[in-house]
Amino acid sequence: MARAETAPDRIAAQNRRARFDYFIEDTIEAGIVLLGTEVKALRAGRASIQESYAGEQGGELFLVNAYIPEYGQAGRFFQHEPKRPRKLLVKKRQLAKMLQAIQREGMTLIPMSVYFNDRGLAKVEIGIAKGKKKGDKRETEKERDWQRDKARLMRDKG
């Protein structure tokens, strides 16, 4: 998304292995329902979305297994549960598109990054993805190595 790329310091959490483990076919920006202590912990940049995914529960979309640690300065009565499911806010048409995609074989919804937009609202970039096999991962790694070597050769000669 253009907003996340223009302000990299506003990224709260990123799933770096997503593009290595999955073929990302499409991305969608979604809002996320958070408690106050969760927002403060996200702003501190201590969240992790490495093992999380998005799924449907009761006709709504939820971010499952995302880890947002407890906020240290809050009292013990105002804390949140670190791995609770969090509701994602998307338009009905986008929700229908994502639900249709995950019902196809091998498709899943992977959170790519959690960031704050220009207005200071927390957003999640969701990728509609298909899992890679071991050979696909090796091919990706070979391609990345070749691009790196090619850039190095061009830099040394030119």
From TrEMBL:
NCBIfam families: PRK05422.1, smpB. The gene is smpB. Residues 132-158 are annotated as: Disordered. The keyword Isomerase does not apply. Required for rescue of stalled ribosomes mediated by trans-translation. Binds to transfer-messenger RNA (tmRNA), required for stable association of tmRNA with ribosomes. tmRNA and SmpB together mimic tRNA shape, replacing the anticodon stem-loop with SmpB. tmRNA is encoded by the ssrA gene; the 2 termini fold to resemble tRNA(Ala) and it encodes a 'tag peptide', a short internal open reading frame. During trans-translation Ala-aminoacylated tmRNA acts like a tRNA, entering the A-site of stalled ribosomes, displacing the stalled mRNA. One of its GO terms (cellular component) is cytosol. It holds the Pfam family SmpB. Belongs to the SmpB family. GO terms for biological process: trans-translation; trans-translation-dependent protein tagging. Keywords: Cytoplasm, RNA-binding. GO terms for molecular function: RNA binding. This is SsrA-binding protein. It is found in: Cytoplasm.
